[in-house]
Amino acid sequence: MRIRLFASLSMALLAAACTTDPPGGTVDPTSDGGPQATTDGSTTAPDAEIPRPITCRDKVKNGDETDLDCGGACAGCADGLICKLAKDCSSQVCTGGKCATPTHTDGVKNGTETDVDCGGDANAPKCTSGKRCGGATDCDSAVCVGSICQKATDSDGVQNQGETDVDCGGTNTAKKCADTKKCAAGSDCTSSSCSAAAKVCVPAAANDGIKNGTETDIDCGGPAGTTPRCGTGKTCG
User: Fold this and answer.
1) Helix (H, G, I), strand (E, B), or coil: what is residue 188?
2) In terms of DSSP H, where are the helices of the chain?
3) Average pLDDT over residues 123-131
4) To 5 degrees, how large is the angle CA 191–CA 194–CA 199?
5) Are residues 132 and 168 in the same domain?
6) Are strands 98-99 and 43-44 parallel, antiparallel or unpaired?
7) pLDDT tens figures, 183-200
8) φ, ψ for residue 27 (rounded to 5)?
9) How many of the other CB atoms lie within 10 Å of CB of 67?
10) Based on the number of CB atoms within 10 Å of its own CB, is 175 exposed (0-12), middle (13-18) or buried (19 or more)?
């Protein structure tokens, strides 16, 4: 009888010991294995059996991290920190075991670029057609549709690819510019007359030294009353 009573009492004491908090409060379950903080701010002795958690925010280089809390499965490391692969770096460039600063010649879409080594900030090269863009300024054609740079045309509503004005003039389009549009030479204008001073297309005139308008030769011919008649040897209609 005494033996059974003693055994029951021992089990009760053991159970109480297992459920009793340490003096001053409960152990913080998030402890990293160092001195354990309790709910009232006191500490207990270190518990070597509590494993240090492998996370990306524990201020410890662990797991597959290449540097403190970065690389591997964690976020990319900042420039200058240790890396093994490009994916270990926020710049996506790992050179000589260190994360490198993004450049516009590193063959990677990084920094503010909208595509590989182009677009984004004002110092970046313009993206060619088919490349990703955030706006018209990212594209060499100045045409960004659906976040993709488009090929320049003479009907895209933009002055681009050598045009002297919107969708006309220059050597890359067959369209001539109308009067008052910007030009570089008479060949840019429907009138074949480009003001040397204003650099705009001007109407054909009977004294502009150019065969244009309805003239059959330079400053002559055409409908009666519009220009002088052509002399001998001049082309006539």
Assistant:
1) helix
2) 2-19
3) 95
4) 140
5) no
6) unpaired
7) 999 999 999 899 989 999
8) -75, 135
9) 19
10) middle
Cα Rg of the chain (Å, integer): 40
In a domain, 23, yes or no: no
Write the CA distances from 15 to 8, 10, 24, 27, 88, integer angstroms: 11, 9, 20, 18, 49
Do residues 203 and 193 touch, judged by C-beta distance below 8 A?
yes
Interval 44-58 mean pLDDT: 54
213 and 166 within one domain: yes
- Tokens 């503010």 — which residue? 112
Retrieve residue 74's tokens. 């964690």
pLDDT score at 8: 53
Cα angle, residue 118 at apex, residues 182 and 75 outer, rounded to 5°: 150
Other beta carbons within 10 Å of 87: 13
User: Domain limits at 203?
Assistant: 160-222
- Which amino acid is residue 157, in one-letter code? G
Q: Per the structure block, which two tokens stand in for 56?
A: 């990306």
CB atoms within 10 A of CB 4: 8
**Res 57: pLDDT:** 87
Structure tokens at 124: 């970046």
Say which DSSP state 148 is in: E
The span from the CA of 227 to the CA of 232, in Å, is 16
Q: Name the maximum alpha-carbon separation found in the chain.
A: 148
